[in-house]
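Homework help board

Subject: predicted structure for assignment chain

Our instructor gave us this sequence and asked us to write out the predicted structure in token form, then describe one feature. I got the tokens but I'm not sure how to describe them. Can anyone check?
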Amino acid sequence: MTEKRQFQAIKGTRDILPAESALWNWFEQTAREIFETYGFRDIRLPIFEETWLFARSIGEETDIVSKEMFTFFKRSEPEESPKDLMQRLARQPARDLREEDLRALGDLLTLRPEATAGSVRAYIEHGMYTQPGNVKLYYIGPMFRRERPQKGRYRQFYQVGAEVLGPSDAPAIDAEMLEMLLVFFERVGLTKTTLYINSIGCHECRPKYVELLREELRKVKDQLGADSQRRIETNTLRVLDSKLPHEQAIIEKLPRISERLCEACREHFAKLKDELKLRNIAYQENWRLVRGLDYYTRTTFEVTAAGLGSQNAVCGGGRYDGLVELLGGPAGIKGIGFAIGTDRAILSLQESGHLPRLPSLEVFVAWMGATAYPVAVGMARKLRARGFSVELPPEEMKFKKSLGLADKLGARYALIIGEDEAASGTYTLKRLADAQQQKFSESALLEHLVSERGQGR
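My token output:
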């Protein structure tokens, strides 16, 4: 006899049930409404892309590419693993790649760990750089990383993000994006937030700083943990992002990027701060804010929220002026973007206790008697046509049981239709919160419900 098995969601994933998904829908819809007032438009990207797109843009030595991506072959798997293949090909110049190497790379697919690379790929592929001015995109959806699951962090997680791509790198673009982000957080009720900003330089000054930082870190290598020791050679800036307590005093003594910026980057950062001041946006400078991806240049930023403990970042982003050209697009195209961690943002909202009043069941149609049923069906259709959420029982119920179910479902009103009401065309509307009842004709009932909704009752 076959043993019964109870299936469960895979570790690092979860079901978002209807009671909670209403909050998610409201959060995402609010983002759409606000982003579109700033001229952003929705883009819907594939869930998976060629692995090389992420390796090329995010960086082969980042933790995301080297440890966290879900990668698979679209055809039969060869002897070489995806990780070994990427590491081998990353060590040789692109011009030396053989035809079989390119075929092998094309056979590697990855569930998207982030959406900036896909947005830039779509921007290039569809010639969006020929459009006038800057192209403003936003996206909403799931991402995938093989991380250790913890509070607010999952292997399938969700992001709301936005990107600006175009010929200009004016600091006003950065500032307006930050303004939009903070307007959104305020609208959804995330008021206990802090904006941190930094500049990590450009292709002129950043490499010099990284080399200086690497030299200083080598001197104290023995005092660092295993991850920081590895990152000294592979992803030096990420050492600054360490949260290990015993490394903090060491990091505080390291050279700061703000002291090594070139003139152009210093001017860009200063203008950004002027733009933020113009918009009355409060911020704090954080010289250790480097972000975890290779494509960032100049402006980086992060927003933290209360209620999430040490892992309190709900949004991160920054400028990536060379990414379009790196992925095969035209030179001179600039970019900046951010991604909100929806899981963490909603968790922070829930823990704050300041949740919005979300739509619930508005009308429960309590019908009784064979002649009342057709009338009840017709009234349910008319109410739904006006946007009301309506529950119509499929079978006749006793009056007391019907009202009890309406109450359990959280309905605001019970619309009572018996055979007498069906014959007279007059209906009883009962407000369940205080048991107040009124009788209405059909037209007066519809008018009353629309009026009550308009007044927020």
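Reply (TA_rk): Your tokens look well-formed. For the description, you could write something like this. Residues 18-37 form the longest helix (20 residues). That's the kind of observation they're looking for.
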